[in-house]
Amino acid sequence: MFLEPSSVKGTVLLVQHVMANKLNRIIFTLRDGEDFIPLISLLKACDVVYSGSEAQEVVTNGMVLRNGEVEYRKRAKIRAGETIIFENNEIFVDYAGE
């Protein structure tokens, strides 16, 4: 399942499967002019959850790491330079720049 580009707040690039720690590395690029993306929106945009309700559930159950620490806030503002880990996915948030 992939979202239409117009329905997400940035672009997603699946870079590689990292064999050492078995994490799929995903780079999410924020759109120009966007400073952040809410955590549950990021999980949906990167296609690591099936729905918004699943995204909310995994966050409130403490299954998501933000920069190495458990993040419980569903609408936490995820900014460029941050790393999110959920299951076998490592999401790095990048900034599109000017």
Task: List low-confidence stretches.
Answer: 1-7, 14-20
What overall form do the CA principal axes indicate?
Answer: globular
The total domain count is 1
Terminal Cα span? 30 Å
CATH architecture name: Roll
Encode the helix/strand succession as letters: EEEHHEEEEE
* Structural class estimated from helices and strands: alpha+beta
Number-wise, the strands total: 8
Question: Could you give a short description of this structure?
Answer:
The protein has about 100 residues and is of the alpha+beta class. It is built from two helices and eight strands. The protein has one domain: Roll (Structural Genomics Hypothetical 15.5 Kd Protein In mrcA-pckA Intergenic Region, Chain A), CATH 3.10.290.
What does this protein structure show overall?
- Helix content is 16%, strand content 40%.
- The termini are far apart.
- It is globular and about 35 Å long.
- The strands form two sheets. The protein has a six-stranded mixed sheet, with no helix packed on it. It has a two-stranded antiparallel ribbon with strand order 3-6.
- The protein has a single domain, classed as Structural Genomics Hypothetical 15.5 Kd Protein In mrcA-pckA Intergenic Region, Chain A.
- α1 crosses α2.
- The chain has two helices and eight strands; from the N terminus they run βββααβββββ.
- By secondary structure, the chain is α+β, with helices and mostly antiparallel strands.
- The longest helix has 9 residues.
- β1 and β2 form a beta hairpin.
- 23% of the residues are buried.
- The N terminus is likely disordered.
